[in-house]
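> call design_seq(struct)
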């Protein structure tokens, strides 16, 4: 992906992803856009929080605090920037809560307790399917 498309993705779409992630995950979560550097270091979303260990209502409490990075497939970003991309993106935002829930089970991350099994987790090559 070229730098111009990366910048457009970062300015037009990433702030809305940040807002939705923060709304879904709630208080205490920090979300930061890490800008595109080069092909090997694409635009990333960094989501982190201190672990929440109060109460026994959650099944998982992993040893590391939440420290997750999300990246999207370049071809998916290119499709998003094309015709019909905005409508597709809105459907994606509507599905964000379900997507976050599915991703956590695949990588030993528990969003409710803000904890995970590894020091850092990458959810890479994501798409914009709802």
């Amino acid at each position: 992906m070229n730098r111009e498309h990366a910048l457009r993705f970062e300015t037009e779409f990433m702030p809305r992803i940040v807002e939705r992630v923060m709304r879904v995950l709630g208080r205490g979560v920090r979300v930061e856009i890490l800008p595109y550097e080069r092909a090997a270091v694409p635009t990333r979303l960094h989501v982190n929080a201190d672990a929440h260990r109060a109460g026994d209502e959650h099944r998982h409490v992993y040893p590391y605090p939440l420290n997750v990075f999300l990246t999207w497939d370049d071809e998916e970003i290119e499709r998003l920037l094309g015709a019909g991309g905005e409508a597709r993106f809105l459907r994606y935002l509507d599905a964000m809560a379900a997507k976050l829930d599915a991703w956590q089970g695949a990588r030993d991350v528990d969003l409710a307790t803000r904890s995970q099994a590894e020091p850092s987790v990458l959810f890479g090559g994501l798409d914009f399917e709802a």
